[in-house]
Amino acid sequence: MMKKNLITPRDPMIQPLSLRPVDAAKALGISERLLWSWTREQWVPHVRIGNVVLYPVEELNRWLNERTMRAASDEIQAAEAVSTAGAAGE
């Protein structure tokens, strides 16, 4: 008698709604240790379901985009401050 395979392969067309810590860290390009630190500090979006910690993909994308925009804005403001200070010294 042949054993029935109870595990079906994942459908490659289904995009994950959330990531486990190892995959979230890889997706963000950071270490798992840093991700856990950010998670403990409530800095990175995550959800706890029982003992499982999940990182919702949409929330991670939104969080990263916000920080990217904020960093770009900070760089522009810093460049303008240097430019203004240089013009005042002329």
If you had to describe this structure to a student in words, what would you say it looks like?
- This protein has 90 residues and is mostly helical.
- It has a single domain, classed as Winged helix-like DNA-binding domain superfamily/Winged helix DNA-binding domain (Arc Repressor Mutant, subunit A, Orthogonal Bundle), CATH 1.10.10.
- 54% of the residues lie in helices and 11% in strands.
- It contains 3 helices and 3 strands.
- Strands 1-3-2 form a 3-stranded antiparallel beta sheet.
- A hairpin with a 2-residue loop joins strand 2 and strand 3.
- Helix 1 packs across helix 2.
- It starts with 17 loop residues before the first strand and ends with a helix.
Brief account:
By secondary structure, the chain is mainly alpha-helical.
Tell me the CATH superfamily.
Winged helix-like DNA-binding domain superfamily/Winged helix DNA-binding domain
Helicity level: 40-55%
Count of distinct strands = 3
> How many separate domains?
1
Given the C-alpha coordinates, what overall shape results? elongated
CATH fold annotation: Arc Repressor Mutant, subunit A
The gyration radius over C-alpha positions equals 21 Å
| Strand order in the sheet with the most strands | 1-3-2
Oligomer designation: single chain
Mean pLDDT: 83
Judged by helices, strands and strand pairing, the structural class is mainly alpha
Please report the number of helical segments: 3
**For this structure, what is the CATH class?**
Mainly Alpha
